[in-house]
Amino acid sequence: MKQLLADKKFYKRVLLVAFPIILQQLLASSVQLVDNLMVGTLGELAIGAVSVVNQMYFVVIIVTFGAMGGAGIFTAQYFGSKQFGRLKQTFRFKLSTALVLSILAIGIFSFFGEFFIGLFTDNPVTIAWGMDYLNIAKWVMIPMSLSTAISTSFREIGITKPLLKISTIAILSNVVLNYLLIFGHLGFPRLGVQGAAIATLVSRSIEFALLYVLLETRGQVFNTKLYRMFQINKVLFKVILIAAIPLIINEFLFSFGQTVFMQSYAMRGDNALAAINITSAISQLVFITFGGIGTAVAVFIGNTLGENKLEEAKENSKKIFIFAVAFAIFLGIVLFILSFFVLDLYDISQETENIARFNIRVNAFMIPIISLYISLYFTLRSGGDTKSTMIMDSGYIWVVQVPVVFVLSRFTDLKVIYMYLTIQLLEIPKVLLALSRYRKEYWLRNLAIENKHNAEKLMLKEEGTLLDNS
Question: How far is the C-alpha of 359 from the C-alpha of 352, rounded, in Å?
């Protein structure tokens, strides 16, 4: 343990890689909070309407990240092993998958949007405002998904600083446009929740445009021509898909499980729905370590596994766990302090404020535990142990947490704060499962070498040629 703590050079390197992502997420979370406050001036029903749509949006985002993560396992390892031909094809997989998922999401939201919103509330005003927001916000899916494909690839090869600059520009544009379009300042029309949706669409489009410029200037190692987006060697496609499918299924079930949580909390009324949304917006200010952890794992574990330095990857993982938990403890203290005064910024009822304050304090105590789990999750995933991550993540949610919240919300009169506390405490056994799997070391593998041999054997059998490295 002393050796792990004494490696100051390593922790500095982790900070150099992770800090831009942490700062980027802090900016994004701050803007989400500002957006939340702006929409909150329109009333609790407006907060509820936007939160329901954002929960639907969250499912698509998480599923997209799952698909990107499946390819990202190979991006990190192929970069580490300098197999740049295969690296380009993992990026093609990301682009094509992102485009397909975004078009599918737009179609679902167009035909079933009102039905989904109605699952959370029967208030006609909330449903109407939710549809006003959704009819514009659904088009965000295309630039958002493609941006995710580009940004995750840069993160996985250790380029993070330009992403922070781009994110800052997109975030600031979102804040300014929200201010102008929600309230109708400087001659702009007062559009309310529709203004918030337009601001999100424009800022996401700006972000994609800037990321595309970055891709053309600094992404040569993995970039590909757009017309070759769907030109992926079929054997390599299968290899990536085998790793990606468990992640996609996992992220869908995980995000859908989170949606069930929210719908269950919403059964306690509009105050509970608004409070859960506020809890999420404020808690995101300290959940900023998660993206940094994922990036650090990709660089210091994924790349190292790709270089076939298995023992070094193992030591790096332990150091990242220490970093993640220590930083999370500090952020938990910050969140607890914020709970005393940040809710005064909202124009909400006392009941909503009480619910949100309790939930925020629960999150303040839970963040070190959640941070450790995130570290374990990304570490297992970096070595391709995606089936076990699916079982302990989404599997656990649906076997344990979803049935519990379903029963509590429908067959008891338990207050929403105690429902929330119960579900959060049920995160602890999941950490123990992840830790047990980590210790078995099934993740300690060089996928770049394994899949190179497997793919070439398959290719020789099916086509009589080696993989196309172009």
Answer: 11
Tell me, yes or no, whether 371 lies in a domain: yes
62 pLDDT more than 50: yes
Interatomic CA distance for residues 368 and 290, integer angstroms:
11
Contact by Cβ (8 Å): 265, 355: no
Q: What value does the mean pLDDT take over residues 414-424?
A: 94
For residue 85, give Cα distances in angstroms to 15, 79, 467. 30, 10, 9
- pLDDT 10s digits, 215-253: 988 887 788 776 677 777 777 788 788 877 877 888 888
DSSP letter (8 states) at residue 464: S
Closest CA to 71 of 252, 231, 242, 226: 242
What is the mean predicted confidence (pLDDT) over 319-343? 89
Residues in the chain: 470
Q: Is residue 467 part of a domain?
A: no
**CB half-sphere exposure, 351, CA atoms < 13 A:** 10
Please give the mean pLDDT across all residues of the chain.
Answer: 82
Kindly report the backbone phi and psi dihedral angles of residue 435, in degrees, each rounded to the nearest multiple of 5, phi listed first.
-65, -40
51 inside domain: yes
- Provide the 8-state DSSP code for 191: -
pLDDT above 80: residue 371: yes
Comparing CA positions, the residue from 202, 81, 124 lying closest to residue 445 is 81
Determine the residue type at 327.
F
Q: How far is it, in rounded angstroms, from Cα 255 to Cα 252?
A: 5
Cβ-contact 402, 464 below 8 angstroms: no
- The per-residue pLDDT for 459 is 47
Torsion-angle region of 38 (φ positive above 0: left; ψ -120 to 50: alpha; else: beta): alpha
Structure tokens at 49: 């309407």
Give the number of domains in the chain: 1
Mean pLDDT to the nearest integer, 194-199 = 89
**CA nearest 40: which of 444, 339, 352, 431?**
352
Tell whether 247 is covered by a domain.
yes
What is the longest distance spanned by two Cα atoms in the chain? 71
8 A C-beta contact, residue 416 and residue 265: yes
Q: What mean pLDDT is predicted for residues 174-200?
A: 88
DSSP 384: T
Please name the residue that has the structure tokens 């220490």: 322
Tally of CA atoms within 13 A in the half-sphere of 458 that contains its CB: 15
Residue 204, domain extent: 2-460
How large is the angle between the packed helices 416-425 and 270-283, nearest 10 degrees?
40
Task: Enumerate residues 6+ apart whose C-beta is below 8 A from 47.
Answer: 36, 39, 40, 273, 274, 277, 278, 348
Q: Name which residue leads in pLDDT, 448 or 388.
A: 388
pLDDT beyond 80 at 302 = no
